[in-house]
Amino acid sequence: INAEYMGDQNFSETKFTLKWSKEQFLQYLLCDHPKGYTQQQVDGVWEELQERLRTVLSCARTRLGKTADVFELFGADFILTEDLHVWLTELQLGPGLAHMGDPVKGRLIPAMLRESLDIALEVLDRRRKGRSLAQPLDAVDRYIVLVNECAACLN
Predict the structure, then answer these.
(1) Predicted confidence (pLDDT) at residue 118 exceeds the cutoff of 90
(2) How far is it, in rounded angstroms, from Cα 149 to Cα 100?
(3) CA–CA distance, 115 with 52 (Å, rounded to integer)
(4) How far from 118 is each of 11, 24, 49, 93, CA to CA, in Å?
(5) Which residues contact 139 (CB under 8 A, 6 or more apart)?
(6) Which residue has the higher pLDDT, 53 or 2?
(7) In sequence order, which residues have a C-beta less than 8 Å from that of residue 92 and are 6 or more positions away?
(8) What is the pLDDT at residue 18?
(9) Gap between the Cα atoms of 106 and 13, Å rounded
(10) How many CB atoms lie within 10 A of CB 60?
(11) Tens digit of each residue's pLDDT (9 = 90 or more) over 18-35
C-alpha cells in the first residue's frame, strides 16, 4: 500500500481511506476482497489477533505488575497476510488518541474512552464495596476481556 500511495500528491487525504473500522474491514474481507473469504476464515482472524495479544500480555505480566488501582490502555498494530495470518508488529503503552480529521478514529476514540472510564469506575466501585472482580463487569460493552487472571488476586 505504501509504495502505491506514497508518491500520490494527495497522500495526506488518501491515508485516511486506508484506515477502516472493524465493520468496514469485515465487509471488505467477506464481500469485496477478490478471494472472497468465508465467515469462518474471518472469525479466525479475530481469534488469532486476540491470541497474539494474550501471548504478549502473558509474557510481559511480571513487568506489568499487579497494582489494583491502576488502569492502562495499550495500542497494538497488526499486519494481516493474504492468507489471513496475523502478525503483531507493535504494542504501545498509551496509544495515539488524537482523532481530529480522522473519521475512523473520530468514531472509535470517544466511545473507547467512555467505556474505559466506565470500566475503571466499576472496578473502583466493586473494590470499595468488597465485590469480586472475577465476575464479568457490567461496563464491558465493546471491549473484549483477553486476560482476567489478576481479578481473583486483587480481591
Answers:
(1) yes
(2) 36
(3) 23
(4) 37, 26, 25, 20
(5) 115, 118, 119, 121, 122
(6) 53
(7) 74, 75, 76, 77
(8) 65
(9) 15
(10) 11
(11) 677 778 888 888 898 888
Q: How many CA atoms lie within 13 A of 124 on its CB side?
A: 9
All cell numbers assigned to 34 = 477478490
Q: What is the mean pLDDT of the chain?
A: 78
| Grid cell at residue 131 | 465485590
Question: Three-state secondary structure along the chain?
Answer: CHHHHCCCCCHHHHHHHCCCCHHHHHHHHHHHCCCCCCHHHHHHHHHHHHHHHHHHHHHHHHHHCCCCCCCCCEEEEEEECCCCCEEEEEEEECCCCCCCCCHHHHHHHHHHHHHHHHHHHHHHHHHHHCCCCCCCCCCCCCCCCCCCCCCHHHC
Task: Determine the Cα–Cα distance for residues 28 and 20; give it in Å rounded to an integer.
Answer: 10
Place of cell 474481507: 29
Mean of pLDDT values over 55-66? 78
The length of the chain in residues reads: 155
